[in-house]
Every structure is written in C-alpha cells, then in structure tokens.
Give the backbone structure.
Amino acid sequence: MSTESATQKTSSHPLYRYVPILSWLPHYKVEWLSKDLVAGFTTWGVVFPAGVAYAGMAGVPAQAGLYTLLASLTLYAILGTSKQLVLASTSASAIMIGSEIAALNPSNATAYYELVTMLVVLTGAIFFLCGLFKLGFITNFFSHPVMAGFISGLVIYTVVAQLPKLLGMMKGTGNTFQQLWNVLTHLNTANLATVLVGLVSLIILFVLPLISRRIPSGLVVLVLGILVSKALNLNATYGVAIVGTVPAGLPPVTVPELVKLAPDVVNCTPTPPSLPLPGGTVFSSMWVATSGSPQENNAIAQSRGTVR
C-alpha cells in the first residue's frame, strides 16, 4: 500500500474527522513554528485585553474572561478546521449575557455566576444542534435592515453602559435612555482622574493602529494602565476604580444545577435574530452549516460551551 493511500485511509477515519488536529499535527513542519508563534502572540495581544473587558461587560469577574480564552482557543485548535477563525468572547455576547441575566434579578454573585454558566452551556447546545441539523440557511431570512438596526442598537447600548465607568460615576438604573440621562445630569460627579485615564486610553487605542497595525493597541493600554496605576497608586490616591487582584490558578470544575436553573435560563435564551450576531464566530458557524461541514459547528459549540 502506498504512503499516499495509507494517509487518505487514515484521514477518512471518523476520529480524524471529528478531531482534525490528529490529521494535520503529525504533518506539521518545524519551519512553520516561528511564524505561528508570532501569529499566536499577536492574537493573544488582541484577545487578552478584550477578554478582560468583556468579562466586566457580562458582569462576571475579570478572570472569567481569561478562562474563556484558555478554553475556547484550545478546544477550537483541537476541533476546528479554519486557519483564520479566532474563537473568543465578543462585546455582543457579553452585553446580551449581562443584560439577560441581570433581568432575572439573581440574589447574589454566586447565583449570577451560576446562571451565566448555565446560559452559556445552553447556547453551546443550541450551536451544536444547529450544526447537526445544518440550520445555517435560517440566516437567509433575516433582512439587512433588521440586522443593521440590531447592531446599531447594540452599539448605543454598549456605549451608554460603559460611560459611567469612563467617567468614574455611579451607574444609573432603567433603560438605555434613562441611563444616558442619568450620566448627562450627573456630570458634576465625574472623577477627573478617571476621565483623564479614559481619554488617554482612547487616544492610544485609536492612534497606535494609525502608526502601525502590528502594535496591539489594546495590550499596550492594558500594560500601561497596570504600570501607571501601580506607580501612582491611582485607586487609593485619586479614586480610580481598578479590577483589583485576579486570583491565580484555575477555578474548580463544577456542574450547575440544571433542573433548578434551566427554567430561568430558558426564558432569557437569545432569540433567533440575535444568534448570528456575536461576532465572526457565529457567522462562520452558519456559513459552515450551510456548506455542509458540521464539524466546524461542533468545534464552535464545544468551545462556546466552556465560556464562563
């Protein structure tokens, strides 16, 4: 039997189909490693600060964003088939999780975290079923004005929700318009040091990409923020809110109480129009479902099912 036919026979094995890394890793060339390391560190420089920020938007501790990256990136590398797709949390998914879980009025932080975990597990199951039954064609029925309106509304919601943090003031209650009015009528309570930190951070975020797209502006802002906060003691001296100490190590593996939490979580599961919106991850999954590659959806479902 020739080497080529043996390779084809091995690649056709079901295990290689559902775990693609087994087919390409044995043929990996060492000369690719240097460029792959550069690509890996570049990607990490982009998704690391974003993961921490999105965790805050979802209402969970900063370390949850880091756990999400470790799980989703690793699982997708094992189960995924795309060389370009980066599977990580998005602002859309973070905002939807935070708003939907907050509407359930959990009694404490532990209950909130359990509901978030359950919602993510349920979302992963939905993605798995979408891939299994190749339901990507459903996105063809979502009109462009509806999707554009949803995205525009999401942007407005995100900006208004983050304004209190940018200005160093208490967040108001109510809907988006009420929260915006609260910000405008309480500008006198803004923390000037926080405003200055926010403005400088935004300038760096927008200017660095104009100088060189190779510089991870988000990571630069994160590192500079940590160094400046430590050197000037911004929290104690100027009242600038900080994340604080992030626990080291990995969290214990726990199983949410499915029977107890499922009814509440089902009520806040994202509606069909919102499913395609949490970034390129979902668009990719729908495209693959349409093109007849359920493995890609399986990989995304497995990875998204680990987000906490």
In short: Residues 251 and 300 are 22 Å apart (CA to CA). Residues 1-6, 271-292 have pLDDT under 50 and may be disordered.
